[in-house]
Input
Amino acid sequence: MYERTPIEIIPGGMYEGGFANSSNAIKVALEHFGVTPPSTLYYPGSSTDISLVGIEGLRVIHADNSLDEHMIGGFALLGAEIHAVDVHVWKPDEPVDVIAFINPSEIDVPTVIKRVNLRSDGLILWAFWGGPPTRLLNSEELDLVAVLNYDEETDKYVINVDSLDEYKTGEKYGSFYAFNQKEK
Output
């Protein structure tokens, strides 16, 4: 499930960024939480990161207002869906299963979350080189449900759903954080 087709040629100006193989972390989280294909992942602030392009069974909606025609063309060559829009104003045209924030610089993440129609059992995935998602961890509207860490010995992501308190307080730091919206 959710196998990624390798990208043979990366168009100029594009990069496979994110963390150590972001697509594998996304796959582990989706499979663990039972998000089955076909599903939709919204990646606001994607810039020219193509690490989530080509995942079978997953519609990935890239959105970033910094994209120019050349960058949009690069995504198009890869068959990716891209929108050159302000992610604080625009939202996908249908409910999404997952919102992924990977190195979300210059994005007001809570504002974007509130605008998007996330399915009731949807996930919010977050990863950032600059530290833990303090605003999300302190949010009254979100529950931390898992932390994913990359295990260099096994070369795989390991998911932790049990002992999350140390991540909530900042005593421990994870590679990816997974949240659900609290019931209203």
